[in-house]
Amino acid sequence: MHTGEKPFKCMECGKCFRLGGTFTQHLRIHTGEKTFKCTECGKTFANSGSHMKHQQIHTGEKPFKCMECERSFSQSASLTRHLQTHTGEKPFKCMECGKSFRHCSHFTRHLQTHTGEKPFECMECGKSFSQKGHLTTHQRTHTGEKPFKCTHCGKRFADTGSHAQHQLIHTGEKHFKCMECGKSFITGGKLRRHQRTHTGEKPFKCMECGKCFSQTTILHSHQ
C-alpha cells in the first residue's frame, strides 16, 4: 500500500493500478460496461463516482458552496468554473478573433463558429450539431424522454439548462448581475444579452447580406 507498487496491469492498454477496485473500474473504459444505474431516469454509468454526481441532478443536492457569494453547486468542477466569475480570469483565447473565455468548453464551442464544423449527426432525421451534448438533447425530441425532474412541482425537462432555469421560478433567485447598471438576471444568457445594450456588440451575422445582430432571435427573424 505504501510502497507505490502497482500489481494490477491492464492487458488492453498497459496501464497499471495499485488497487483492484480502481483497476476494475478502468477495465470498463475498454468493455463499455456500465453497471451503475440511476433509479430516477435509467441512465447508466461505469463507476460509482459518476453515478453519485448524476443523482445530485435529481435530488437537488448542492454541497459545494462559493464563499464569495454563497451560491451552491452540485459538483466541485462547477464551483471552480463559477469562481472565475469573481476573478474575471479568462485563460482561453481565440487566435482567430482574439476573444477570451473562462471555460475550455465555451472556447471549443466558439471555435466552431469560425469553422462551421458540425460532426454530430442525428440518425433519426439527419440534423447535425457542433456538440455531442446538443445532439443528445435533440434526440429527446424524437424519444420524448425528459429525465430532469423539478423537485418543487414535479415538472420534467429534456435538458439540464431548462430544468435549472425553471427551478429559479420557484426560488426567485437572480444570481447574474450587470456590473454596468446593477440589474440582475435569472440566467447568464439573459445577462449576456442585456450587456450588449451597453457594449453595442452584435456577434450574430447574416451570411446572406452581412448585417449583424445582437441576438440570435433577431437574426432568425431577419432571415
Automatic annotation (TrEMBL):
Annotated ranges, domain C2H2-type: 8-35, 36-63, 64-91, 92-119, 120-147, 148-175, 176-203, 204-223
Gene Ontology CC terms: nucleus
Keyword hit for rRNA-binding: no
Entry keywords, A to Z: DNA-binding, Metal-binding, Nucleus, Repeat, Transcription, Transcription regulation, Zinc, Zinc-finger
Subcellular location: Nucleus
MF terms (GO), sorted A to Z: DNA binding; DNA-binding transcription factor activity, RNA polymerase II-specific; zinc ion binding
A Pfam family: zf-H2C2_2
PROSITE patterns: ZINC_FINGER_C2H2_1 (PS00028), ZINC_FINGER_C2H2_2 (PS50157)
InterPro entries registered for this protein in UniProt: Znf_C2H2_sf (IPR036236), Znf_C2H2_type (IPR013087)
Keyword Repeat: yes
Alphabetical list of SMART domains matching this protein: ZnF_C2H2 (SM00355)
TM annotation in the entry: none
Family the entry assigns: Belongs to the krueppel C2H2-type zinc-finger protein family.
Protein name: ---NA
Source organism: Podarcis lilfordi (Lilford's wall lizard)
